[in-house]
Design a protein that fits this description.
Elements (H helix, E strand, L loop, with lengths): L2 H13 L19 H10 L4 H21 L5 H24 L7 E6 L7 H12 L3 E4 L6 H10 L4 E6 L6 H14 L5 E4 L5 H7 L3 E2 L3 H13 L1
Parallel strand pairs: 1-2, 1-3, 3-4, 4-5
Helix pairs in contact: 1-2, 1-3, 2-4, 3-4, 3-9, 4-5, 5-9
This protein binds cobalamin.
The site of cobalamin has 28 residues, from helix 5, strand 3, strand 4 and helix 9.
């Protein structure tokens, strides 16, 4: 297989959640190598990790994100794609650690104080990771101190994502945004979750709202290329 074919195949495996050779779906690829084996092969054949990320992972996750945003696929397919991406990503981790390939930035995400919903937040985290950002997932019930502590620890390009699923915890979101804004004037703050909308985002002074992970990925890609 040529390098281009290999990259296209990795993107396809991520798009359709073909994690490894044993994954039964999609049926057309049954018994064939998946994202796991093909990523290993690509590195062994000398494809640079940065190329693998941009022309394999990002392409696959971008297609998944678009289809999800257009309601052509749903949470289960998105989770399978994310699993394929994170399995393949494990092969790239040593290259990030050694500095041979650079992350586009660090995205610190969490569900706000008092809120335990994490399914949507996890999808956003996985999608963003697939676009080459390092993701620090602080989990659920996260207050501004915890966000601030993590932001203070990090250098380079940074952004924070807050998720809220309850009308009551939208109030926590408001407080966290106010606190982070007071401490870090230029920090891009993304918000989302079912009860949140762009009017609320503007009212509380956050920078960006999206109803789906794709929007967050595109906004962060814009920051990374600015
Ligand atoms: C699953 C669920 C739960 C699970 C959560 C499990 C888990 N691990 O997350 C459990 C059972 C624990 C739960 C508990 C409760 N829940 Co609940 N729950 C839901 C349910 C059914 C689905 C939520 C979900 O996962 N959706 C799927 C994901 C993919 O969508 P999403 O979260 O919206 O995320 C997407 C976008 O919003 C966006 N997004 C999300 N976060 C972010 C962040 C950023 C930065 C960006 C850019 C985008 C983004 O991208 C995601 C992917 O597209 C909803 C109803 C519904 N149909 O929405 C109720 C719902 C949210 N729950 C509700 C309630 C009331 C509760 C409880 C208070 C119930 C109770 N009396 O105990 C508790 C609260 C617990 C707490 N303190 O948080 C209400 C909220 C009502 C309101 N207006 O406030 C809802 C709407 C149900 C209802 N109709 O009454 N719940």
């Amino acid at each position: 297989m040529s390098m281009d074919d290999l990259l296209a195949r990795i993107a396809l495996c991520i798009e359709f959640g073909k994690i490894d050779r044993d994954s039964p779906y999609p049926v057309e690829l049954r018994g064939e190598d998946g994202a796991d084996e093909l990523t290993r092969q690509a590195l062994d054949e000398g494809i640079p990790p940065a190329r693998l990320l941009d022309e394999g992972f990002v392409v696959g996750m971008d297609r998944v994100g678009r289809k999800f945003a257009e309601r052509r696929i749903f949470v289960p397919q998105m989770l399978m794609a994310a699993k394929a991406m994170s399995t393949a990503m494990a092969h790239l981790k040593p290259h990030f650690a050694s500095g041979s390939v650079r992350r586009k930035g660090t995205f610190v995400i969490g569900t706000v104080t008092g809120d335990l919903h994490d399914i949507g937040k996890n999808l956003v985290a996985m999608m963003v990771e697939g676009t080459g950002w390092e993701v620090v997932d602080l989990g659920v019930d996260v207050g501004s101190e915890r966000f601030a502590e993590e932001v203070t620890k990090r250098d380079g390009r940074l952004a924070v994502g807050l998720s809220a699923m309850l009308t009551t915890t939208m109030l926590s979101m408001r407080d966290i945004v106010a606190d982070l804004r007071a401490r870090f004037q230029d920090l891009p703050i993304l918000v989302g979750g079912a009860p949140v909308n762009d009017d609320f985002r503007s009212e509380i002074g956050a920078d960006f709202y999206s109803r789906d992970p794709q929007g967050a990925a595109e906004y962060l890609a814009g920051l990374a290329s600015a």
